[in-house]
Design brief:
Radius of gyration: 20 Å
Number of domains: 1
Number of helices: 5
Distance between the termini: 13 Å
Oligomer: single chain
Shape: elongated
Structural class: mainly alpha
Order of helices and strands: HHHHH
């Protein structure tokens, strides 16, 4: 049962990460189009500028859990890289319990009303010609910590046997 749960979380994280990777290509195309529009045609596009902002936010917020899954987040590696697997597992488990999980829960709690208020009025851009989906952008403030929380729990459960000195099965 635990393996099924872990593989489901990993699958969700991987799908979000692959989607975020495609967002980077889309973002590059949008920015190139914006630059061409500005310098070649001497025109601006507020909706396209906001689209670039939305894509940038989505890229990082949807990719955060995928980066955690791939052990790609920045850490102070000066000591950690020399630790044996048991100590690394302890550091990662304690870090997950003391920092990652509480921060994710705090972000969810603090963002909930903010996002709910945005959805209640279907918040739109205040810029003339801007995008009408600000509430969708703000929803990422709930999606990112939820994905990080799930992936953090999965990583914790995966490392716990090693931290306890038991072989992994």
């Amino acid at each position: 049962m635990l393996r099924l749960i872990l593989s489901s979380i990993d699958g969700l994280t991987a799908r979000c990460g692959r989607g975020a990777a495609w967002l980077s290509l889309t973002l590059a195309l949008v920015v190139c189009t914006l630059v061409a529009a500005r310098y070649v045609f001497r025109t601006g596009a507020p909706a396209m500028q906001e689209a670039a902002l939305y894509l940038h936010a989505a890229l990082f917020m949807l990719g955060a859990a995928f980066t955690l899954q791939g052990n790609g987040h920045v850490r102070v590696d000066i000591f950690y890289r020399r630790f044996p697997p048991l100590i690394k597992a302890w550091v990662d488990c304690v870090g997950t319990l003391l920092f990652l999980i509480p921060v994710c829960i705090l972000l969810l709690v603090l963002s909930w009303d903010y996002v709910a208020a945005s959805w209640a009025v279907r918040e739109t851009s205040s810029d003339p010609g801007g995008l009408p989906w600000v509430y969708l952008l703000k929803t990422l403030l709930l999606i990112m910590p939820a994905l990080l929380l799930l992936q953090g729990i999965a990583e914790f459960l995966r490392l716990l046997p090693t931290a306890l000195g038991r072989p992994r099965d």
